[in-house]
Amino acid sequence: MAMAQQASLACSTATTWRELTNTSWRDDDYRRMVMAYLIEAVYLLELERQERRDAAAVAQQWWKPFQYRLAHEIVDERDGSVFGAIFERDHHGADAAAAAGAASPSGAPSAVVAFRGTLLRAPTIRRDVEDELRLLARNSLRGSARLARALQALRATIDRFGSENVCVCGHSLGAGFARQVGRMLMSSSSSPRHPRQQQQQQASAAAAAALEFHLFNAPYLSLPMGVRSVVKTADCLLKALRSGAATVGRWHGKALRNVAYANCILGYTRLESSRKL
């Protein structure tokens, strides 16, 4: 509880975006915080889409200050819902920041693949909860219609930037997707019969081993742990809504920052390599 209060207090300080972005990416707390912010951006993309607003125009406050851009939304083709996103380094924004005297970030990943968790709203609740229950019951997301899309997005990002320059992050159900696609890159369903297939699998495993994962409130360790994660997430959101900075059905300003900071300290796991998945 004391840590949550400290996190909430940190949200209300007069820290500027420039001070945040000048912080070295090699600082673990800073890196963790930015991952949490990018995950919150994915939540907001879907919430604003449901409200039929320009989602990117609102959500960009969660990636633009860190010199990223929204490269691609990961969408469930069945209903058009956004459950993930790919963020890439905005070199134009970095050049502008350097011209303004801001320090260039050190160690920032070239791309971040982020996945949101469950949204308890009518347009997404059914499919979100289906995947959540699948994950809790089977410790796996195999069978999810979203899984192939998530894996395709990650592979495309690795092909473009190299796995050593890519971070994967997720909150709650999104942490489950991040973990699952990492495990799928590491393993294969059958033994390869041809040398070329074997080389492809070895390359895929090597790529997965170099990825960096940031998992928040991952509900996959066991059913009781999953329940505790849901309780923590609900408590986090409740505190954000009670902050007085959010209205029903919308996440704005201080409320979003409260959630992001809370995500940084509740149930956080950083994996330097997918070998530990």
What report would you give on this structure?
The two termini are 29 Å apart. Residues 1-14, 97-104, 221-235 and 240-256 have low confidence and may be disordered. α3 packs across α11, α8 runs antiparallel to α9 and α10 runs antiparallel to α11 (253-265). It is built from 11 helices and 6 strands. The longest helix is centred in the N-terminal third of the chain and has 23 residues, at 28-50. By secondary structure, the chain is α/β, with parallel strands linked by helices. It is globular. This is Triacylglycerol lipase. InterPro entries: AB_hydrolase_fold.
**How much helix, percentage-wise, in residues?**
40-55%
Report mean pLDDT, rounded to a whole number: 73
Strand content: 5-15%
Task: Quote the distance from N terminus to C terminus.
Answer: 29 Å
